[in-house]
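Hello, quick one for you while I still have it in my head. No rush at all, and the record is pasted right below.
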Amino acid sequence: MSIPETGLIRRFALIYLGCAIVLSVILFTVARYDDHARLAQLAASELRYVGVARVRAEKDFEPAEGDIHIIANMDDLRQYVENGDPLHREKVEQYFMLLAQGRQHYYQIRYLDADGREKIRINFKDGKGVVVPREELQDKSAYYWGPRSTVISRLPFCWW
Protein backbone atom coordinates (compact mmCIF):
# COMPACT_ATOMS: atom_id res chain seq x y z
CA MET A 1 0.00 0.00 0.00
CA SER A 2 1.49 3.16 -1.10
CA ILE A 3 0.76 6.54 0.38
CA PRO A 4 0.26 9.23 -2.18
CA GLU A 5 3.01 11.80 -2.28
CA THR A 6 0.74 14.71 -1.26
CA GLY A 7 -0.55 12.75 1.70
CA LEU A 8 3.01 12.03 2.78
CA ILE A 9 3.94 15.68 2.54
CA ARG A 10 0.82 16.66 4.45
CA ARG A 11 1.53 14.13 7.21
CA PHE A 12 5.16 15.25 7.42
CA ALA A 13 4.10 18.92 7.62
CA LEU A 14 1.60 18.20 10.42
CA ILE A 15 4.15 16.24 12.44
CA TYR A 16 6.88 18.83 11.77
CA LEU A 17 4.65 21.80 12.64
CA GLY A 18 3.36 20.04 15.76
CA CYS A 19 6.89 19.34 16.94
CA ALA A 20 8.02 22.85 16.04
CA ILE A 21 5.15 24.41 18.00
CA VAL A 22 5.78 22.20 21.06
CA LEU A 23 9.51 22.93 20.92
CA SER A 24 8.86 26.68 20.52
CA VAL A 25 6.55 26.69 23.56
CA ILE A 26 9.15 24.81 25.60
CA LEU A 27 11.93 27.21 24.54
CA PHE A 28 9.75 30.25 25.24
CA THR A 29 8.86 28.92 28.70
CA VAL A 30 12.51 28.19 29.53
CA ALA A 31 13.61 31.62 28.30
CA ARG A 32 10.88 33.33 30.32
CA TYR A 33 11.80 31.37 33.44
CA ASP A 34 15.46 32.24 32.92
CA ASP A 35 14.61 35.95 32.64
CA HIS A 36 12.62 35.81 35.87
CA ALA A 37 15.43 33.95 37.63
CA ARG A 38 18.01 36.49 36.47
CA LEU A 39 15.79 39.38 37.50
CA ALA A 40 15.28 37.85 40.96
CA GLN A 41 19.03 37.30 41.29
CA LEU A 42 19.71 40.90 40.25
CA ALA A 43 17.15 42.21 42.74
CA ALA A 44 18.72 40.17 45.55
CA SER A 45 22.16 41.45 44.60
CA GLU A 46 20.96 45.05 44.56
CA LEU A 47 19.34 44.60 47.98
CA ARG A 48 22.68 43.42 49.35
CA TYR A 49 24.39 46.51 47.92
CA VAL A 50 21.71 48.75 49.42
CA GLY A 51 22.09 46.99 52.75
CA VAL A 52 25.85 47.53 52.76
CA ALA A 53 25.42 51.19 51.80
CA ARG A 54 22.81 51.64 54.53
CA VAL A 55 25.11 50.20 57.19
CA ARG A 56 27.96 52.44 56.02
CA ALA A 57 25.73 55.52 56.00
CA GLU A 58 24.43 54.72 59.48
CA LYS A 59 27.99 54.38 60.74
CA ASP A 60 28.90 57.69 59.10
CA PHE A 61 25.98 59.44 60.77
CA GLU A 62 26.34 57.89 64.24
CA PRO A 63 28.69 60.62 65.52
CA ALA A 64 26.46 63.34 64.06
CA GLU A 65 23.37 61.86 65.70
CA GLY A 66 25.19 61.80 69.04
CA ASP A 67 26.29 65.40 68.56
CA ILE A 68 22.71 66.44 67.72
CA HIS A 69 21.41 64.80 70.89
CA ILE A 70 24.05 66.61 72.96
CA ILE A 71 23.28 69.95 71.31
CA ALA A 72 19.53 69.47 71.74
CA ASN A 73 20.01 68.92 75.46
CA MET A 74 22.44 71.79 76.03
CA ASP A 75 21.26 74.04 78.81
CA ASP A 76 22.95 77.07 77.23
CA LEU A 77 21.10 76.46 73.97
CA ARG A 78 17.78 76.18 75.80
CA GLN A 79 18.48 79.39 77.69
CA TYR A 80 19.38 81.17 74.47
CA VAL A 81 16.25 79.89 72.70
CA GLU A 82 13.97 80.85 75.59
CA ASN A 83 15.51 84.19 76.53
CA GLY A 84 17.75 85.27 73.64
CA ASP A 85 20.48 85.87 76.23
CA PRO A 86 23.74 86.96 74.45
CA LEU A 87 25.88 85.22 77.10
CA HIS A 88 24.24 81.87 76.35
CA ARG A 89 24.51 82.55 72.63
CA GLU A 90 28.25 83.07 73.03
CA LYS A 91 28.59 79.80 74.95
CA VAL A 92 26.68 77.95 72.23
CA GLU A 93 28.90 79.52 69.57
CA GLN A 94 31.99 78.42 71.52
CA TYR A 95 30.67 74.88 71.82
CA PHE A 96 29.85 74.79 68.10
CA MET A 97 33.38 76.03 67.29
CA LEU A 98 34.91 73.34 69.52
CA LEU A 99 32.71 70.75 67.87
CA ALA A 100 33.71 71.92 64.38
CA GLN A 101 37.40 71.86 65.27
CA GLY A 102 37.18 68.56 67.13
CA ARG A 103 35.24 66.62 64.51
CA GLN A 104 36.74 68.37 61.48
CA HIS A 105 34.11 66.92 59.19
CA TYR A 106 31.29 69.43 59.67
CA TYR A 107 31.45 72.09 56.99
CA GLN A 108 28.88 74.19 58.85
CA ILE A 109 27.05 73.94 62.15
CA ARG A 110 23.85 75.95 62.38
CA TYR A 111 21.14 76.75 64.82
CA LEU A 112 17.92 77.63 62.97
CA ASP A 113 14.89 79.10 64.69
CA ALA A 114 11.38 77.66 64.25
CA ASP A 115 10.91 79.76 61.10
CA GLY A 116 14.07 78.42 59.47
CA ARG A 117 16.27 81.50 59.92
CA GLU A 118 19.86 81.04 61.02
CA LYS A 119 20.52 82.36 64.50
CA ILE A 120 24.00 80.88 64.87
CA ARG A 121 26.29 79.50 62.20
CA ILE A 122 29.83 78.23 62.47
CA ASN A 123 31.82 77.63 59.30
CA PHE A 124 34.77 75.24 59.38
CA LYS A 125 37.56 76.98 57.53
CA ASP A 126 41.31 76.33 57.45
CA GLY A 127 41.10 73.89 60.37
CA LYS A 128 39.17 76.30 62.59
CA GLY A 129 35.59 77.02 63.49
CA VAL A 130 34.67 80.57 62.48
CA VAL A 131 31.58 82.37 63.84
CA VAL A 132 29.55 83.93 61.04
CA PRO A 133 28.55 87.52 61.89
CA ARG A 134 24.82 88.10 62.51
CA GLU A 135 24.41 90.27 59.43
CA GLU A 136 25.56 87.37 57.23
CA LEU A 137 23.10 84.83 58.65
CA GLN A 138 20.51 83.61 56.17
CA ASP A 139 16.89 82.55 55.92
CA LYS A 140 16.86 78.82 55.12
CA SER A 141 13.12 78.21 55.40
CA ALA A 142 12.68 77.61 51.66
CA TYR A 143 15.32 74.86 51.50
CA TYR A 144 14.31 71.20 51.15
CA TRP A 145 15.56 70.55 54.67
CA GLY A 146 13.80 73.57 56.18
CA PRO A 147 11.28 73.45 59.04
CA ARG A 148 8.29 72.75 56.77
CA SER A 149 10.11 70.03 54.89
CA THR A 150 8.68 66.59 54.24
CA VAL A 151 12.25 65.28 54.43
CA ILE A 152 12.66 66.55 57.98
CA SER A 153 9.32 65.13 59.08
CA ARG A 154 10.61 61.62 58.23
CA LEU A 155 13.82 61.91 60.27
CA PRO A 156 14.01 60.10 63.61
CA PHE A 157 15.25 63.27 65.29
CA CYS A 158 14.43 66.88 64.69
CA TRP A 159 14.31 69.84 67.01
CA TRP A 160 12.49 72.72 65.34
